[in-house]
């Protein structure tokens, strides 16, 4: 009878340990998924800002090219006259 009680106690202990291990694994997996989601969000934000930065640089470059073209058109005749005179 005492041996049965000891055996039952061991079985209960093993069940509790197994359950605790499963719960810990589930919690670890949930934490890993949460961190992965946060990482992907930060990664997307970083790549997104990089993309918008290059778009802004391209826009700025186009504006400067337009200004240079305008200056060229305005001063072309005068510069040619000075060079040929």
From TrEMBL:
Where does the record place the region Disordered? 1-23
Concerning Pfam families, the annotation shows: V-ATPase_G
Keyword Iron listed: no
Whether Transport counts among this entry's keywords is yes
Gene Ontology biological-process annotations:
synaptic vesicle lumen acidification
Which keywords are on file for this protein? Hydrogen ion transport, Ion transport, Transport
Q: Which GO terms describe its cellular component?
A: synaptic vesicle membrane; vacuolar proton-transporting V-type ATPase, V1 domain
For this chain, one GO molecular function annotation is: proton-transporting ATPase activity, rotational mechanism
Which InterPro entries does its entry note? Answer: V-ATPase_G (IPR005124)
What is the stated purpose of this protein? Subunit of the V1 complex of vacuolar(H+)-ATPase (V-ATPase), a multisubunit enzyme composed of a peripheral complex (V1) that hydrolyzes ATP and a membrane integral complex (V0) that translocates protons. V-ATPase is responsible for acidifying and maintaining the pH of intracellular compartments and in some cell types, is targeted to the plasma membrane, where it is responsible for acidifying the extracellular environment.
User: What does the sequence similarity comment in the record state about its family?
Assistant: Belongs to the V-ATPase G subunit family.
How would you summarize the oligomeric state and partners of this protein?
V-ATPase is a heteromultimeric enzyme made up of two complexes: the ATP-hydrolytic V1 complex and the proton translocation V0 complex. The V1 complex consists of three catalytic AB heterodimers that form a heterohexamer, three peripheral stalks each consisting of EG heterodimers, one central rotor including subunits D and F, and the regulatory subunits C and H. The proton translocation complex V0 consists of the proton transport subunit a, a ring of proteolipid subunits c9c'', rotary subunit d, subunits e and f, and the accessory subunits ATP6AP1/Ac45 and ATP6AP2/PRR.
- Name under which the protein is recorded: V-type proton ATPase subunit G
| Organism of origin | Cynopterus sphinx
